[in-house]
Design a protein that fits this description.
The protein is mostly helical and 319 residues long. 81% of the residues lie in helices and 0% in strands. The chain folds into two domains: 66 residues, no CATH class; 222 residues, no CATH class.
């Protein structure tokens, strides 16, 4: 839009922010987000104007108000998960949707491949794993693999591996998004064939109640990491009004924030797999409650809460 119209639409809001500063952290955060958003727009379309200089000064004042002492640094960390990450999810909801859809498609490819090729599961999971699982099924303990070894050591290994996988999802996005889709393809086919294997043995419901205690958070985090990779790749493919370099820097920063932001979810999934999933004898109501609570949390935090927060803050990011 023309600069005059931009100023006309926003002047009242800017004056309110300038003359009615508050000490409430939530209101400060809301105002700061709105001002920095307007500043980003102004820098893009009116880089040398007085409007941009004015907004830059206004944003600097709010920044000093928010981060002026150590206590606020702690609030900044909390605010990242409370405000910034959910708003990023809202801004890049399309990439999250694409990542989810692709993962589901790849999972169904794994299911169909395992259904029509009896050797496919061994090809994907390995002969040793399949033979071990068959032996456990014969002994009446099909999920005995989760009971092996130390819970603490298992947690460390699983957490480290899944954090690595999430980083790979993100970093390979630089390959024009194809890299992230390839990692999604591998993990989706593996999950689909793995899950079908238990259904083919008549253990479908039991496998869901056991595996998805940790799988709900784990797979969700991989889908989100895949979205981070798509954001990085798309920033290279579609720089829009930015130079390609600046666009990639912006995409890398956003993708990195997402990848770091989901680490607590990955660690929680690893904790469940190491300390909870091994109790395969737990009551059905308890395992159902855990996986349902995990699913509801992911839907709330990644989809519903960001929408409510965006509406509350009137957040209007520039993509």
């Amino acid at each position: 839009m023309r600069e005059a119209l931009f100023i006309k639409q926003s002047t009242k809001k800017w004056k309110e922010y300038e003359h009615n500063k508050t000490n409430d952290p939530d209101e400060l955060a809301s105002a700061f987000i709105a001002i920095t958003d307007d500043l980003a727009y102004a820098k893009t379309f009116y880089p040398n104007s007085n409007t941009t200089k004015y907004l830059n000064g206004l944003a600097a004042g709010f920044h000093q108000s928010i981060y002026k002492n150590k206590k606020e640094k702690t609030n900044r960390i909390v605010g990242f998960w409370r405000y910034e990450l959910p708003l990023i999810f809202y801004t890049y909801r399309k990439q999250l949707l694409y990542s989810f859809v692709f993962f589901i498609i790849f999972t169904m490819m794994g299911v169909l491949s395992a259904k029509y090729d009896t050797n496919f599961v061994k090809l994907i999971m390995g002969d040793d794993y399949v033979n071990m699982t068959n032996a456990n099924i014969a002994k009446g303990d099909p999920f005995g693999v989760y009971k092996q070894g130390s819970s603490i050591l298992m947690f460390i290994q699983i957490a480290a591996n899944n954090v690595k996988v999430a980083i790979i999802f993100f970093v390979l996005g630089i390959l024009f998004s194809v890299g992230s889709l390839y990692v999604s393809l591998k993990n989706g086919i593996m999950m689909g064939s793995f899950q079908y294997y238990f259904f083919s043995k008549g253990l479908g419901l039991q496998s869901v109640l056991v595996i998805w205690i940790h799988g709900t958070l784990e797979i969700s985090s991989f889908i989100i990491a895949g979205a981070a990779g798509l954001i990085l790749g798309n920033s290279l493919l579609f720089p829009k009004t930015y130079t390609r370099l600046i666009s990639v820097q912006k995409g890398a920063k956003i993708g990195l924030k997402i990848t770091i932001g989901i680490i607590p979810i990955i660690l929680t999934a690893a904790f469940f797999e190491s300390f909870v999933t091994r109790h395969t004898e737990m009551p059905v109501w308890l395992s159902t409650a855990i996986l349902t609570a995990s699913l509801l949390f992911m839907v709330w935090y990644v989809i519903l809460y960001p929408q409510l927060l965006n509406k509350k803050l009137n957040y209007n990011p520039i993509n």
